[in-house]
Design goal:
Order of helices and strands: HHHHHHHH
Largest sheet: none
Strand content: under 5%
Shape: globular
Oligomer: single chain
Number of domains: 1
Number of strands: 0
Distance between the termini: 57 Å
Number of helices: 8
Length: 226
């Protein structure tokens, strides 16, 4: 009887993940002409957030139970976020060194179309910079809710009968996140996947508290915008 219940739960997680990933990539293909890139970004994350929330409601899971809780120690939370940020930067530097040593052709570092924040900041247009960066932070938070909180938990549920289900979940969610950023195996997808692995490990090791990874993600995107 218990085995049947467990199998039904796994089928439920499989259905949820299949639906979620299908919708995520379907929405990713949606193109809205003459719009700022943040608009399409919120379309992707907003749609998948609604889908994930609906699926969580079916499973009687809340965002609070996935780690969206008030930090007990704000200072410690920021320190942990800083450590995550430093580890990510160090990992990316090593990744770039490895690429250079193998003479891998690197992708263009041109900014995403519609991103003029660095130029605006250097020319004193602080209003534009801060208006955009606030939305970037919100988008960063959504990504951590979905990639780390939701995906890791649901993939663990799918592989609940395996001993290394958490390791599998961290790797799979990182690969999905990396592929979603470029739709190929490239420098960008690999570097994003590495970040996803670091964020996933941090999320699990820090008692599944989302705030340190959210803050680290915001700091990382702020640096890239500048």
């Amino acid at each position: 009887m218990k085995d049947n219940i467990k199998e039904n739960n796994q089928l439920s997680f499989l259905f949820d993940l299949t639906t979620y990933i299908a919708i995520m990539f379907l929405i990713r293909e949606t193109f809205i002409p003459n719009t700022h890139y943040l608009v399409t970004g919120f379309l992707y994350s907003g749609t998948t957030l609604l889908v994930a929330t609906w699926q969580m409601k079916r499973q009687r899971v809340t965002w609070k139970s996935l780690g969206l809780i008030r930090p007990k120690n704000i200072t410690k939370t920021f320190v942990n976020a800083g450590i995550i940020f430093i580890i990510i930067i160090a990992t990316l530097l090593v990744f770039n060194l490895i690429q250079d040593s193998f003479l891998v052709v690197k992708e263009s570092s041109a900014a995403v179309k519609g991103t003029n924040t660095g130029y605006s900041l250097s020319n004193g247009d602080y209003g534009y910079f801060f208006s955009v960066i606030l939305f970037v932070w919100l988008q960063s938070a959504f990504e951590e809710l979905l990639e780390r909180g939701f995906l890791i938990t649901w993939i663990e549920g799918l592989f609940s009968n395996l001993k290394f289900r958490t390791t599998i979940a961290i790797i799979v969610q990182a690969c999905i996140w990396g592929f979603r950023h470029s739709y190929d195996i490239s420098e960008r997808s690999l570097s994003v996947a590495l970040i996803g692995i670091i964020m996933g490990i941090a999320y699990v090791k820090l008692n599944r508290n989302l705030w340190p990874v959210i803050i680290a993600h915001c700091a990382m995107n702020t640096m890239s915008m500048i």
